């Protein structure tokens, strides 16, 4: 039943599965399917997530058969229709608020534990690692659903409908932890390999406005004031180093160094 490949990432490949579904086959050694299975079973199509249809094995690889959501990812929409930048940023924020309205399953990891492990694995100077872990120790626990990798590439747009995919990094915590991760990606993440020079130029020109619009819409729609976003941004920057995207390291180290110097004045 496996059809043509539709996409791939570090953890998995996605293939067509009949006319109305896809199968996400995880690469050997990755464990994100556990969190993704937990979240999708809990949501059952709510919060923009695809419905979980089945769990399968294919040539020794575990896979999730998922509802095939309509639309294209928001990155593609931005490249094809850059004049919709503000509207898309507002959609991104509105859909994120819907995610954070959900109480996360107790079977999900605590986002602070996930960040601690990533910071400990990150190639950081010792003083910056210790600083990030100290900041993290001051931050609160929470019970909200956190996507863990929420950005335009993981959000599908079809008119007014928004779908949210790739829940392999889902955790449980305060919304600000997840919001800060998204803000970090919007401001400083390097474009995916293979992104054309023209697309890189459009992204560089528009990302500041896109990020500001997302933040403004998220704050306006949030049921409570945002707390500790700067601190969550610091620890997410440290954790991002463990993803191994070396081109981003100078920017992330600079962000962390500024936060450390500000805290030690």
Question: What attributes does this structure have?
Answer:
three-stranded antiparallel beta sheet, alpha+beta, 265 residues, Aminoglycoside 3'-phosphotransferase, Chain: A, domain 2, Phosphorylase Kinase, domain 1
Explain what the structure shows.
The protein is of the alpha+beta class and 265 residues long. It is 47% helix and 18% strand. It folds into two domains: 66 residues, Phosphorylase Kinase, domain 1 (2-Layer Sandwich); 192 residues, Aminoglycoside phosphotransferase (APH), C-terminal lobe (Aminoglycoside 3'-phosphotransferase, Chain: A, domain 2, Alpha-Beta Complex). The chain has nine helices and ten strands. A five-stranded antiparallel sheet has the order 1-2-3-5-4, covered by helices on one side. A hairpin with a 2-residue loop joins strand 4 and strand 5. The chain is globular and about 60 Å long. The mean pLDDT is 92.
SSE succession: EEEHEEEHHHHEEEEHHHH
The CATH topology of the largest domain, please?
Answer: Aminoglycoside 3'-phosphotransferase, Chain: A, domain 2
Overall morphology: globular
Q: CATH architecture of the largest domain, please?
A: Alpha-Beta Complex
Q: What count of structural domains? A: 2
What's the end-to-end separation, in Å?
Answer: 61 Å
Rg over CA atoms, rounded to whole Å, is 18 Å
What structural class is derived from the secondary structure elements? alpha+beta
Q: Can you give the mean pLDDT?
A: 92
Helix content: 40-55%
Largest sheet geometry: 5 strands, antiparallel
Number of E-type strands: 10
Low-confidence stretches: none
Spatial sequence of strands, sheet with the most strands: 1-2-3-5-4
CATH superfamily of the largest domain: Aminoglycoside phosphotransferase (APH), C-terminal lobe
CATH class of the largest domain: Alpha Beta
Q: Percent of residues in beta strands? A: 15-25%
Number of helices: 9
């Amino acid at each position: 039943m496996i059809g043509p490949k539709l996409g791939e990432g570090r953890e998995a490949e996605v293939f067509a599965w009949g006319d109305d579904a896809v199968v996400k086959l995880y690469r050997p050694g990755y464990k994100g399917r556990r969190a993704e299975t937990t979240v999708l079973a809990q949501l059952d199509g709510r919060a923009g997530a695809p419905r979980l249809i089945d769990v399968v094995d294919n040539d020794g690889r575990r896979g999730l058969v998922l509802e095939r959501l309509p639309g294209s990812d928001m990155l593609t929409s931005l490249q094809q229709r850059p004049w919709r930048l503000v509207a898309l940023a507002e959609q991104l924020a509105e859909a994120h608020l819907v995610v954070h309205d959900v109480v996360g399953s107790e079977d999900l990891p605590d986002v602070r534990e996930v960040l601690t492990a990533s910071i400990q694995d990150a190639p950081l100077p010792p003083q910056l690692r210790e600083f990030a872990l100290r900041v993290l120790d001051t931050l609160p626990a929470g019970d909200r659903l956190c996507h863990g990798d929420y950005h335009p590439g993981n959000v599908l747009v079809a008119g007014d409908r928004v779908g949210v995919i790739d829940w392999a990094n889902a955790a449980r915590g305060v919304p600000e932890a997840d919001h800060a991760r998204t803000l970090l990606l919007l401001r400083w993440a390097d474009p995916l390999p293979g992104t054309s020079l023209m697309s890189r130029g459009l992204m560089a020109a528009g990302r500041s406005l896109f990020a500001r619009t997302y933040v403004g819409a998220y704050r306006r729609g949030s049921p409570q004031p945002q707390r500790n976003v700067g601190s969550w941004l610091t620890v997410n920057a440290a954790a991002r180093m463990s993803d191994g995207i070396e081109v981003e390291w100078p920017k992330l180290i600079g962000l962390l160094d500024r936060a450390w110097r500000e805290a030690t004045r």
